[in-house]
Amino acid sequence: MAAALVLLAGCGRHAPEADAATPVIALPVQAAAAVTAGRFPGEAHARYEMPLSFRVGGQLSARYVNPGDRVKQGQALAQLDPTDASNQLAAAKAALEAAQHRLLFATQQRDRDEAQSKQNLISQLQLEQTEDNYASALAARDQAQQQFQLAQNQSRYTTLVADHDGAITSRQADVGQVLAAGQEVFGFAWSGEREVYLDVPESRIDGVVTGQPATISLPALPGQVLSGHVREIAPAADPQSRTYLVKLTIDQPSSRLQLGMTADAVLQGTQPSKAAVSIPATALFHQGEHPAVWVVRPADSTLELRNVTVARYGERDVLVTDGLKPGERVLMQGVHTVSAGEKVAPIAPPHAEDAPQ
Predict the structure, then answer these.
(1) Strand order in the sheet with 317-322
(2) CA distance linking residue 197 with residue 44, whole number of Å
(3) Per-residue pLDDT averaged across 287-298, rounded?
(4) What are the residues whose beta carbons fall under 8 Å from the beta carbon of 4, sequence distance 6 or more?
(5) 107 and 134 in contact (C-beta within 8 Å)?
(6) What integer pLDDT is reported at residue 170 of this predicted model?
(7) What is the structure's pLDDT at 209?
(8) Whole-number pLDDT of residue 17
(9) Average pLDDT along the chain
(10) Nearest to 170 by CA among 53, 307, 277
(11) pTM value?
(12) Taking residues 247-253, what's their average pLDDT?
């Protein structure tokens, strides 16, 4: 009976099974494709556009230019009623002359009292009073000079002058209107550099980068293609249209290009570095403060958590420029359910649309 029990016990033992591999969705990563933003309509603008206004308030008495006029630097554009400014200038000039006369008298009195003080003909107190009168007269003269210069500036500011060559784009004030200081009178566009403004939808703004080259064609100039590049991208979308303003600088503006012309801009693709790869956003993990991904080791099919450098975040994917190589197998989903060193069995996504594009 003992022998039979030993035989039965031996039959109940089995060899230990190898550790079972965990099935995970892991696929080889592909090299990133070129970033292409596509084609967008636009409008021609000047590199510098700004409102022109008077630095002082007053009644507009004359307007010398109209929208569409080209002006030169230093050219007078409009005039305020100069009566008040002229009166202030005359009053400041009279005050300065009076202060200069008082200073001359105080200087002569000081010189006389200093000479008499040396001969002990006057007291020290009288000399000190004379010197105090001289110091007060000198300060009053300096103050009057500053007021006179200010009045001169105020008088000069009644004439609106172009500070650069350019064109008048709009008119915001009429003759007889009382204007406040800084109130817009004209819209003004500088001559020289030209740009094209684009409204890029938020779904396509990821494909636009500063410095990206572009080709620009205009229906008004058939057969002429201009080259440019992205100079500026708005940091926030327009609250109403939900589009981003992108400004293209034209490298060699055409003399035939007029402000406000409609344009058709094609943003050329920018090719990432050879080491850049694109992975789904669901594959991104974080090790502390650093982005990381789970990489399947080809030797033993175990997981390794590796730090990566992310160059750009998209809606569904991220661009990795360091830490991964094309062809390496990366965990695409379930990054929070695995651990380092875990043995896995890579499988494809159950739905084809879930595979990275």
Answers:
(1) 30-31, 277-280, 317-322, 309-313
(2) 7
(3) 89
(4) none
(5) yes
(6) 94
(7) 85
(8) 46
(9) 87
(10) 53
(11) 0.59
(12) 91
What does residue 4 show for φ and ψ, rounded to 5 degrees?
Answer: -65, -40
Return all residues near 313 (Cβ < 8 A) that are at least 6 apart.
281
Torsions phi, psi of 84, nearest 5?
-65, -40
Q: Which helix (H) or strand (E) holds 68?
A: none
* Residue 243, C-beta contacts closer than 8 angstroms, at least 6 positions apart: 199, 200, 201, 202, 237
Cα 116 from Cα 118, distance rounded (Å): 5
Count of residues making up the chain: 357
Residue 205: HSE in the Cβ half-sphere, 13 Å Cα cutoff: 19
Coil, helix or strand at residue 166: strand
Tell me how far apart the alpha carbons of residues 333 and 130 are, in angstroms, rounded to a whole number. Answer: 93
Residue 191 has pLDDT above 50, yes or no: yes
The answer on pLDDT for 320 being more than 60 is: yes
Are 163 and 73 in contact, with CB atoms under 8 Å apart?
Answer: yes
Tokens of 173: 């004030």
Residue 271 burial class via C-beta count within 10 angstroms: exposed 0-12, middle 13-18, buried 19 and up: exposed
Q: Is the CATH number of domain 38-47+190-267 3.30.2000.30?
A: no
Q: Does the pLDDT value for residue 102 go beyond 90? A: yes
pLDDT value at 317 more than 60: yes
Q: Are 292 and 254 in contact (CB under 8 A)?
A: no
Q: What is the pLDDT of residue 7?
A: 47
What is 83-156's CATH number, 1.10.3470, 1.10.287, 2.60.120, 3.40.50?
1.10.287
22-35+273-349 CATH = 2.40.420.20
The 3-state DSSP composition of the chain as helix, strand, coil percent (nearest 5) reads 25, 40, 35
